[in-house]
Design brief:
Helix 8 crosses helix 9. The chain is globular and about 60 Å long. It folds into two domains: about 190 residues, Rossmann fold; about 100 residues, Rossmann fold, CATH 3.40.50. The strands form two sheets. A six-stranded mixed β-sheet has the order 1-2-10-7-8-9. Helix content is about 40%, strand content about 15%. With about 300 residues, it is α/β, with parallel strands linked by helices. It binds pyridoxal-5'-phosphate (PLP). Pyridoxal-5'-phosphate (PLP) binds next to helix 3 and helix 7.
């Protein structure tokens, strides 16, 4: 009887417990005797990206507020958050609708379908902002049907990083990092982890990473100076510096990581590592932690970007 009762108090699906606690992996950089580069292996999350953390926190919040699983979870996503909602939602009987820009890689669309999500494809020319607009329209049309998660303004997103990513990095480095580098899309990773680390040690330099132009190939990232809708979560005072990385540099760095270290990451992680290498070039003693946002397996349909030049 006791054993049965103990089993029945298991509140969350076992899959949800696999999110987070990712390893911090060393990256060997030639010519750096004192500096160190560490990659937070977010691609090892069960959904293959850092966005599992935000999605789990948003799902928990929706359930706690009584909105889920009664309503469908609705959001716009360039792919990773959508996949995380769909995968974690499948484990908790939460139905999911994702507005996905037509330029998202085919792997993303296919994975959303595999996990049973409804996918509303929006015009590729309108990018993530077009997808967000469509999600808002759907939410306004049928508020009783949808729980509009809105990852760009949902405070559960940065909270996930304040409560998990930031503390993990602090513990894994014994507090010895000098720089924290993260690519910025919703900016949840930077806002949550960055503010946590800064409170622990104000001397840590926070470097936000973004594309160098509004027309870029770094899925999941935003060019903040030109976007019509900056994420509501973004506080420009949090990052000490913002590095703008060209798509070609991000691609080259992702290729280098795969070949030199066996770490297969996507373009946004390539951009973040490129920014970290710039830091190490300027500061030989830097101890840098970079977020490895997602798996490169999600971009295998772009072979020209993986081909050595
Ligand atoms: C591949 C990828 N990298 C980086 C990010 C940025 O993370 P955040 O939204 O926490 O700023 C995202 C967000 O969707 C992403 O999909």
């Amino acid at each position: 009887m006791t054993a049965v009762r103990q089993l029945s108090v298991t509140r969350e699906p076992a899959l949800w417990g696999l999110v987070g606690n990712t390893p911090l992996l060393p990256v060997q950089v030639a010519g750096h005797a004192r500096g160190r580069l560490w990659l937070k292996a977010e691609w090892l999350n069960p959904g293959g990206s850092v966005k599992d953390r935000a999605a789990r926190a948003i799902l928990r919040d929706g359930i706690a507020r009584g909105e889920l699983p009664g309503k469908r979870l609705l959001d716009a996503s360039s792919g990773n958050t959508g996949i995380a909602y769909a995968m974690l939602g499948a484990a908790a009987d939460v139905r999911v609708t994702i507005c996905l820009p037509g330029n998202a890689s085919p792997e993303r669309w296919a994975l959303l379908k595999v996990y049973g999500a409804e996918v509303v494809v929006t015009d590729r020319m309108d990018g993530t902002e077009g997808a967000a607009r469509r999600a808002r329209e759907l939410a306004d049309e049928a508020p009783d049907k949808y729980f509009y998660a809105d990852q760009y303004s949902n405070t559960a997103n940065p909270r996930a990083h304040r409560e998990t990513t930031g503390p993990e990095i602090w513990e894994q480095t014994g507090g010895r990092l000098t720089h924290f580098v993260a690519a910025m899309g919703t900016t949840g990773t930077m806002m949550g982890s960055g503010s946590f680390l800064k409170e622990r040690n104000p001397a840590i330099t926070l470097v936000g990473v973004q594309p160098d132009s509004p027309f870029h190939g770094l899925e999941g990232l935003k060019h903040l100076p030109t976007t019509a809708h900056p994420p509501a979560l973004y506080d420009p005072a949090v990052p000490d510096k913002v590095a703008e990385i060209p798509t070609e540099t991000a691609d080259r760095t992702a290729r280098w990581l795969a070949r030199a270290s066996g770490y297969l990451v996507g373009w946004s992680a390539g951009a973040a590592v490129a920014a970290a290498l710039d830091v190490m070039g300027r500061e030989p003693d830097a101890q840098v932690v970079v977020i490895g946002c997602d798996t490169g397996a999600r971009y295998i349909s772009e072979p020209h970007r993986w081909a050595e030049r």
